[in-house]
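Q: Could you fold this chain for me?
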Amino acid sequence: MEKEVNYIQKTSGLKKIDYFGYAMGDVASLLVFGLVNSILQIYYTDYLGLSLVSVMILFTVSRIWDACNDPLMGRIIDTTKCKPGSRYRRWLVLLSVPLAIATVLMFVDVRSLGQTGAFIFATITYILFCTLYTGTNIPYGSMAAVITSDEKERNTLSVFRSMGSTFGAFPAMALAGMWIVSNPDGTKTFKYNVLLIGVIIIAVLSIVGYFICYKFSKERIVTVPEKKKVKGYTFKTIKGLLSTKSFLVVSLAGMLFLAGQMYQQSYNQYLFTYVFDAPGLMSLPTIMQYLPVAIVMFFSNKLCKKFGRKEICAVGMLLAGLSFLSIAFLKVTNPYIYLGVCLVSGIGNSFIFLMVWALVNDAIDDYMVKSGRRDDGTAYSLFTFCRQIGQTVAAILVNAGLMSFNYDKDLIGNSPEMLESMYLQSCLIPAILFILIFVLLWFFYPLNKKRLQELQVEKEAVLEKIALENEENKEQEVVSE
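A: Sure. Below is the predicted structure, expressed as structure tokens.
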């Protein structure tokens, strides 16, 4: 693998167009990924008719592969030669159209192929989607570290990215509530044409979002690979990152947070369709989770400045966990009360949702200060690897939970035991995951407010040293020529 050197340009002074352009990248990503969160699980089981065991195997195998190809993509980004300022941005344009095509293919009706044929087709198309999504998401996420080195601007970038993901997820959530209709006799009708048209529109919009992100984003900390290869560099980088406590803890927290989010979004498809018998409200729990973001984002930077990123994120996750724990044993039958709890949980989730990318960049900076190297692509891909493991955990929990009470879509409406088990699982699993995140951040994440201020000074000193070394290298190259 090739070792990286870094050429530093202006790293602050971002304008509104910079934030808008960067946010559009996550709008594009969540447009297609939102379909996986909001629809794909119930599409596989209740429309294609795949068994729970098949779906769990499909998701587990696909997401393990997806997790493994994250570091691979990170090293490809870090070691591939490119023009200055295009190391990350170019992948958004190259892979956006293939990703959109893969998205549509996932929702092609293949029931005529039978159970085995449908399972094979679903597995191939989902793996293809995961691979292409990695190809855009890894460079997009890595790009934040090279847009600016200023702590406040990184906070704002993280907020705008989270805003982008919120807006990007809405179309899929709306579609989730439109394609399933509850009939007076209790049966459910699946409107496939509505689903397919919606998926195609969303896929096209994702292409537009990626191109806007490419147009208005600028890589200011530009990295280019050295010609000399260093044996074992990739392994050394991964080992160094995992040895950095801040990076390890935030990766575990990110894994659990995504597991909790995806578990809720997948499980709510069943909860509102069968327990509350209100499939039209299926998208509202996720909206309640995202809605507080629109308010919290306006004062999140001020709270971070006063109390610290770690501190407010940890307390927020405690609130989210306790809110679901409180209704686990109340057996709420009114869907609107459940939605109210989702709103309270969403307030707690908002802080880490808005700041998780800033926490990751802080941890990457911590690694850079300790190692003297910048490996942003590899670092971000390793963090994403952990998040992908979180997706795998969510898939296992959802399908194993349904199997635990022998879920059957034709019988569940007349089985109080099934309905009660489904309800309890929808509350207890998120509560446990969110409280675990609180413990990780509060007791083990080392970058508190005071340490973060020290890190900012150390980081600028290391960047200046790297820049001077690179200038000396360039001068030596000129002399040798």
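A (continued): The two ends are 26 Å apart (CA to CA).
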